[in-house]
Amino acid sequence: MRRRPGWPSETFLARLPEASRQELLGLGPVHAHPAGRVLVRQGDPGTLLYVIAHGLVKVTARTENGKESLLAVRVRGDLVGDMALGGSPRSATVTTCGPTTTCVIKGDVFLAFICRHPPAALAWNTFTGERLRWANQRRLEFAGYDSDVCLARLLLALLARHGRPTRHGMDLGVPLTQPELGSLIGAKESTVQKILRDLSVRGLVRTGRRRVVVTDVPGLTAFAELPPSSAENHRAKP
Prior knowledge:
Layout: H1 18-25, E1 30-33, E2 38-40, E3 48-54, E4 56-62, E5 68-75, E6 79-80, E7 93-96, E8 100-106, H2 107-116, H3 118-144, H4 147-162, E9 164-166, E10 169-171, H5 178-185, H6 189-201, E11 205-208, E12 211-214, H7 217-223
Helix pairs in contact: 2-3, 4-5, 4-7, 5-6
């Protein structure tokens, strides 16, 4: 399906025809949220979904022992809250990472929209499948590779979906702390710190507060034990 300009290319809204996208954004009220606002809470029933029109949110889940893990980040053009529209309990919490604007849509209204628009139904199925594949890939890498390779692969995956060019290289485009990066690969903060220092010494990344810039995409691709041909796929897409 041809991507549409104006929205990050891997998001749900980018996959919709213009008329369908405009109709979807008119199905519910638009709300502005401050940083730290919980949109969806783990365990609550799922009756609403949120279309992110502006901003960034993080998806987290708390285990039975009380530990919180970061599962994913979502950007403008993405949907959140759509995985539990049947009324089943929410499997994760969604929190804004900064000022965020959303269109809030009732679950039954969204499902009726999907039924009226087959291209939107296909886009939703594809979007859902890609989210599941992304999560499964992280689990496979966690089981099959050392932490340094897992982190390199995670950085490249984030770069491919959210990255943006800067004068120093490719910024990940999402402000993640080192503990949050660690939770995505099942590693301690101290381990992530050590790996990032090593990658920095190798000239592959530059780090700052809640920021990682990949300065050498082909080099990081090789470090991640990925084929050279995949380096271009891990560059930011328009």
